Write the structure tokens for this entry.
Amino acid sequence: QVQLVESGGRLVQAGGSLRLSCVASGRTFRTYVMGWFRQAPGKEREFVAATMWPVDNTYYADSVKGRFTISRDNAKNTVTLQMNSLKPEDTAVYYCAAGRSVRTVVAAHDPEVWGQGTLVTVSS
């Protein structure tokens, strides 16, 4: 089972960009569907984006389509989330996650492994 460590969260102004990174330990990274979730203050955790391999499919929440891009580098065991045109409502703790299938990550929002989270604050 992989372990996940996120980085890159910080304070940014609305309209700005931010890149989150997640590094995974272990040699089985490429077998996982990798995703990002977020939890805003007082709200439930929600799905943001996911990527699978070897079929290069990506999935996005409607709220971030066209603004966020998820990508993975299996050679470096990393998954990144490029966030553009940020809005105050994007403020949340962002979690990297890994699951064995698209169903568990994208459909069920129940991946097997979670990172500790990184805080993104978007000021208006």
